[in-house]
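Incident review: delayed structure delivery

Summary: a single-chain prediction request sat in the queue longer than the usual turnaround. Root cause was a stuck worker, restarted by the on-call engineer. No data loss occurred. The affected request and its eventual output are reproduced below so the record is complete for anyone auditing the incident later.

Affected input:
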Amino acid sequence: MAQIESGTTPWPAEAMESYRWLDAYLLKQPATEKEFQPAWQAYKYLLRGKMYAYVGVDDRNGRPIVTLKLEPAYSELLRREYADIVPGYYMNKIHWSSVYLDGAVPRQVLADIAGAAHRTVLSSLSKKAQREILEA
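Output delivered after worker restart:
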């Protein structure tokens, strides 16, 4: 998979539109860094070196996904409500959930989930690191 800027990915055009919006949203989260993970053929979104999201393709069905780190109770609630939110692909199924980008999860819900993933990792950092990030 080439860099998103080149416009070349293995995903259908309609999924790419979802990804471009989501990519911009994730990059607006404070102190977020993005890097490409060649072994996964996916983009990782990190906060002080800790991953809170990745966007890639589910090898089992070829569907584009975003996988997010969430509080277990929140993940469980989302999975019951939306068929396109499933246990995290290749991740700890308790703390990670995957959302199919070509599915029926509303954009605002996906934005809320992405923000929650960032906050989940932010809260795991030291108080000093949290202050530095929020004050920047």
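Verification: The two ends are 33 Å apart (CA to CA).
Action items: add queue-age alerting; document worker restart procedure.
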